[in-house]
Amino acid sequence: MNFENKVVIVTGAAGGIGKEVVRKLANGNAKVVLVDLNEDAIKSVQSELGLTEANSLVVKADVSNEENVKNYVDQTISKFGRIDGFVNNAGVEGPAKPLEEITEKEFDFVYGINVKGVLFGLKYVLPVMKEQKSGSIVNTSSVAGLIGSPSMVLYNSSKHAVMGINKVAAAEAAAYNVRVNTVNPGVINTQMMRKIEANVAPDAAEAARTAYNDAVPMKRYGEPEEVANVIAFLLSDEASYVSSSSYTVDGGLYNV
């Protein structure tokens, strides 16, 4: 897809899906802003993908911190003058434990990144796009935002929150020609899934992976680039009449 002269922010750009989104955008000639808490990792992605100072910007940010979010938006405007796309992708899986064992610290950590990070990103990106009267936003939720999974209450409920935030943002932005959608990955072959497997079954992570794999009708994990392909479509002009929608990328795992 052609993203020539488009400026796109990607949070969680050092992660499995984030990196593949950056790759897809770079291949489409976009100017990409890579945002992540791990600055060394996003610099490595920038170097690996052959991005230059002219067509990319690296910003270290804790997305749960409102000032950090405002800063990555301000830096984007300062360097590139506009924002055409926003991939609101940063997220964490949280602990795997029964609901009654969840601590306030764990709640604050997961909701800080998965919910506050999404909301703050929209808070500062939407005004820019509304003023431009153009733009496309993709919020990364999860199939976990559509169901309830035992022992994953923080991850599940935070992704449900993303779905609700997305609907409100889409309704508020539509009159300004700004589109807002979610992509909901299933079991994807990323480091996050390795952590989930280990958290769910500390002594049998490989068995957990096999069980997840077998539960998918396609009988395999998805690859990060398969999610990136859908995100790129939603960012592109090819999806010009698509908003407030939810796209599952899960091999048919959850037919809801």
CATH topology: Rossmann fold
Widest β-sheet, arrangement of strands: 3-2-1-4-5-6-7
Radius of gyration: 17 Å
* Global shape: globular
Percentage beta strand: 5-15%
Strand-pairing-aware structural class: alpha/beta
| CATH homology group | NAD(P)-binding Rossmann-like Domain
Q: Supply the CATH architecture.
A: 3-Layer(aba) Sandwich
How far apart, in Å, are the first and last alpha carbons? Answer: 29 Å
Main beta-sheet strand count, sense and barrel state: 7 strands, parallel
Count up the helices.
8
Unreliable stretches covering 5 or more consecutive residues:
none
H-E string: EHEHEHEHEHEHHHE
Give average pLDDT, whole number. 94
Q: Which CATH top level class fits?
A: Alpha Beta
Helix fraction bin = 40-55%
Got a strand count?
7
Indicate the topology.
Elements: E1 7-11, H1 16-27, E2 31-36, H2 39-48, E3 56-60, H3 66-80, E4 85-88, H4 104-132, E5 135-140, H5 153-173, E6 178-185, H6 191-200, H7 205-215, H8 224-235, E7 246-249
Parallel strand pairs: 1-2, 1-4, 2-3, 4-5, 5-6, 6-7
Helix pairs in contact: 1-8, 3-4, 4-5, 6-7
